[in-house]
Specification:
Layout: H1 2-17, E1 25-29, E2 46-47, E3 56-61, E4 71-72, E5 74-77, E6 82-84, E7 90-91, E8 98-103, E9 110-119, E10 126-127, E11 132-138, E12 144-150, E13 152-153, E14 162-163, E15 166-168, H2 170-173, E16 187-190, E17 198-202, E18 204-205, H3 207-212, E19 217-218, E20 221-227, H4 236-239, E21 240-242, E22 244-245, E23 250-260, E24 265-266, E25 281-288, E26 299-300, E27 316-321, E28 328-337, E29 339-340, H5 345-349, E30 353-360, E31 370-371, E32 375-385
Parallel strand pairs: 3-9
Antiparallel strand pairs: 1-2, 1-5, 4-7, 6-8, 8-9, 10-32, 11-12, 13-14, 15-20, 16-17, 17-32, 18-19, 20-21, 20-30, 21-26, 22-30, 23-28, 23-32, 24-31, 25-27, 25-30, 27-29
Length: about 375
C-alpha cells in the first residue's frame, strides 16, 4: 500500500512539473439535430481519431449553397492545450476554410488546422496531379523532412479550397528518414508527367531498422483516403484507410503509366527470389461506407490483402483491377472496368458508398515483398460513370 501511494505521489509530482507539449486535435464534430439536414449521413458529423499528421479536417455536406452560415464545430484536443478560435464557436464555412490554432499546455508548441465544409463527391472526374504542396515536418531525431502532398481544387475557385483526398505512405517511411527532400521519399511529384506534372512511386529500402522489424521495403503508394501514421508501428495494414464518399457509381477508370521493376525481388526477411519479378498494382473498390449497425465503415489494408476475395466482403459492391502492367519506358495507356453486384440507387444518391483508388510500385508491398528500385509513374487518370 505504501509503495502504491508513493508511486501515485511521484506520478502526481511529475505531472505537475512537466506540462504537456502536445497540441493536437484528436476529434471534431458538429452537434445538434438542427444540423443533420446538411449531411447525407449523421456519421459524417463526426471526425474521430484524427491522425497527428493530419492538419486538414473536412466535413462533407449535401450543398454549400443551403448550408447554414452559423455552424459551431467542437473539438477534443490534447490535455491542457488551448484552441483559438474558441471551441464550439460559430463560423460561416460557406465562405471557405476556418483556421484554428492549438497551443500546447506548456505554451511552447503550436499547430494550425484548416477546417472546411465541402460538397460530398469526387472533386473532379479527371486527375492530372498538377496540384502539389511541400510541407516541412520535424523528425523523431529532431531533423527536418520535406514531403509532397497532393490535392484537388473545388469548382469554386474564388474560395481557393484545397481538397486533400489523396494520401501516401510517406509518413510511415519518415520514421526511418532524416533530412530528406521530397524526391527521396517513396512517392513524390515529378515534372516529367504525361502532361506536365505526374506522380512517381518507387520502392525503397527502409534501412536497418526496417529490416530488423521484418519490414525491409517501403513501396511507393498513392490512394484516395487517409494514412493514419499512429498505426504504422502497431498494425501497418490499418494505417492505410481507403476510399472517399462518391455520389456516382463508376464503371471504368483509365490513365497512363510507365514502369520499371527493380532487379532483386525479396520477401520480408530479405530472402531473394531469382524467379520472381516485381509488379506494379492499380485497382479500385466501390463499397458501402456504413455497416449493418449504421456505423461508419472504411476499407483498410487487411481488407484488400487478397483482391481475389474482395467481393466476398458484404460491404463491397464492385472492384476493378488492371490485370497487367508490363515494364515500359514510354507512357502507356491502361484501363480497368468495375465488376461485381448491383448497387441500390438510393444508397448511391445518399452518398452511402466510397470509392477507393490505389496505386503501388510493388503489388505485394503491403506484405513487404517486392524489389528495391521498382518505379511506377502515373498521370492523367480519369473516372468514368455510366449515368
Amino acid at each position: 500500500m505504501i509503495i502504491a501511494l508513493c508511486c501515485c505521489c511521484m506520478t502526481s509530482c511529475i505531472k505537475d512539473e512537466a506540462l504537456n507539449k502536445e497540441c493536437d486535435i484528436e476529434s471534431a464534430w458538429v452537434e445538434g439535430a438542427e444540423y443533420e439536414q446538411y449531411f447525407y449521413q449523421t456519421t459524417e458529423m463526426r471526425k474521430e481519431t484524427i491522425s497527428s499528421a493530419e492538419t486538414n479536417i473536412v466535413f462533407m455536406v449535401r450543398s454549400l449553397i443551403s448550408l447554414s452560415t452559423q455552424i459551431p464545430v467542437n473539438f477534443k484536443i490534447t490535455d491542457g492545450a488551448t484552441i483559438e478560435p474558441a471551441n464550439g464557436s460559430v463560423h460561416d464555412f460557406t465562405k471557405g476554410k476556418v483556421t484554428y490554432t492549438v497551443t500546447s499546455e506548456d505554451g511552447q508548441w503550436q499547430r494550425t488546422y484548416n477546417v472546411s465544409f465541402q460538397e460530398a463527391s469526387l472533386p473532379v472526374q479527371k486527375f492530372s496531379f498538377e496540384n502539389v504542396e511541400t510541407r516541412t515536418e520535424t523528425t523523431l531525431l529532431g531533423g527536418k523532412n520535406e514531403m509532397h502532398y497532393f490535392y484537388e481544387e473545388t469548382s469554386s475557385s474564388d474560395k481557393d479550397e484545397k481538397i486533400y483526398c489523396w494520401a501516401t505512405g510517406n509518413s510511415g517511411a519518415a520514421f526511418v528518414m532524416n533530412g530528406v527532400k521530397p524526391e527521396g521519399f517513396p512517392t513524390y511529384s515529378t515534372p516529367s508527367g504525361k502532361e506536365e506534372r505526374g506522380v512517381c512511386l518507387n520502392t525503397q529500402s527502409s534501412g536497418s531498422m526496417g529490416e530488423w522489424m521484418h519490414k525491409p521495403i517501403a513501396a511507393g503508394s498513392l490512394f484516395l483516403g487517409k494514412f493514419i501514421v499512429e498505426q504504422v508501428l502497431k498494425d501497418p495494414l490499418q494505417a492505410t484507410q481507403f476510399g472517399i464518399p462518391n455520389a456516382k457509381e463508376p464503371v471504368r477508370i483509365t490513365g497512363w503509366y510507365k514502369y520499371k521493376p527493380g532487379e532483386k525481388f525479396t520477401d520480408q526477411d530479405m530472402k531473394e527470389y531469382p524467379d520472381r519479378t516485381d509488379e506494379a498494382s492499380i485497382y479500385a473498390v466501390y463499397y458501402r461506407n456504413l455497416d449493418d449497425q449504421n456505423n461508419s465503415y472504411i476499407l483498410d489494408g487487411h481488407d484488400v490483402a487478397d483482391l481475389s476475395k474482395i467481393l466476398d466482403n458484404p460491404q463491397v459492391y464492385k472492384v476493378a483491377q488492371v490485370a497487367s502492367l508490363p515494364a515500359t519506358d514510354t507512357w502507356t495507356r491502361w484501363e480497368m472496368f468495375f465488376e461485381g453486384r448491383d448497387v441500390p440507387e438510393d444508397i448511391v444518391s445518399a452518398l452511402g458508398c466510397n470509392l477507393a483508388l490505389v496505386f503501388s510500385s510493388s503489388k505485394y508491398g503491403a506484405q513487404f515483398e517486392g524489389a528495391i528500385g521498382s518505379t511506377l509513374y502515373i498521370d492523367e487518370v480519369e473516372v468514368l460513370y455510366g449515368k
